[in-house]
Amino acid sequence: MTYAMLVFSFLQPLEDAVKWLLDRLHYDIGLPWAWAIVGTTIIVRILLVPLTVRQIHSMQSLQKHAPEMKEIQRKYKGDRQKLNEELMKFYRENHINPAASCLPLVAQFPVFIALYFVLRDFSKDPPGGDLSWLHIVPSIADKANSHWSGYLLLAIYAGSQILSTYFMSTTMDKTQRTIMMVIPLIFITVVARSPTGLVIYWVTTNLWTVGQGLITRRLMPKTPFPSFGPKRTSRTPPAPKGDGNGPAPARAPASRPPAPRRVKRKKGGPRR
Q1: Which of 51, 180, 53 is nearest to 106 (CA)?
Q2: Where in the sequence is the domain holding 24, given as residue range(s)?
Q3: Residues 217-258 pLDDT 10s
Q4: Number of CB atoms found within 10 A of residue 163's CB
Q5: Coil, helix or strand for 143?
Q6: Helix and strand tally (H, E) in the chain?
Q7: How far is CA 23 from the centre of its chain?
Q8: Fewer beta carbons within 10 angstroms: which end of the chain, N or C?
Q9: Apex CA 168: angle with CA 134 and CA 185, to 5°?
């Protein structure tokens, strides 16, 4: 058995499940095939909500401990093996799972492949019903670059991918975030050769991610960074310096000027 046949046999139950769900949305509810793909995407994302919650908590935890992790990276930047060991130890001690941020994406990938096989069957044996979308895309089984409307959908895909990457990469530095936003533009040539239905699937899941990011930022409190002392301003007096062998001596409180002495006058004395 070849590797391709092994993968196909493993994904066959998932392909049957995706085809069954599309049939229910099309034949029982009456949705067009393209909107059935949108409905399938929404159902998949609802099922992945528990993994999404773990993803959000993982991202918040990474953001909370970002200063400590940067300090570890600075301390062991010359020893890659020691750096990895210390980071793994730090993750265990603080109950951080850095892989949790990738779980929703990994869980969606088999569904993506299963939908690809379903649309491939559609191109060989088109089912009954309209395969167009919004009266613009001729067929969801055709390649995205086979019609001018496909390029419009690819532009929407690129924009939604960049926005979803922006909302899901809050813990990355500026360089990493820029790279993650450019990668979708590089792979757009590969996506252009995919069936239009797959592009609809990814546009829908990207828009879901954008909405999820907006709701998360509005409802969930921001994780404060650890405080390393009071914030200094231009009016803050300089800190006292020690001799280098111990902590700086505490400043003595300023002494108040003595109160003026009051003289008590005697009763019955001569008036002036």
Answers
A1: 51
A2: 7-62+100-219
A3: 776 555 444 444 444 444 445 555 544 444 555 555 555 555
A4: 17
A5: strand
A6: 10, 0
A7: 32
A8: C
A9: 60
pLDDT tens, position by position, 88-132: 888 888 877 777 767 777 888 889 899 999 998 888 888 877 888
Question: What count of other Cβ atoms lies within 10 Å of the Cβ of residue 153?
Answer: 22
Distance of CA 232 to the CA centre of its chain: 33
- Residue 110 forms part of a structural domain: yes
pTM over 0.90: no
35 domain-assigned:
yes
87 near 76, Cβ under 8 Å? no
Q: Which residue has the higher pLDDT, 141 or 62?
A: 141
Would you say residue 91 lies in a domain?
no
Number of domains in the chain: 1
Tokens 């390393």 appear where?
A: 228
Say if residues 77 and 83 touch (Cβ distance below 8 Å). yes
Q: 189-225 pLDDT, tens per residue?
A: 888 888 999 999 999 998 998 888 788 777 655 544 4
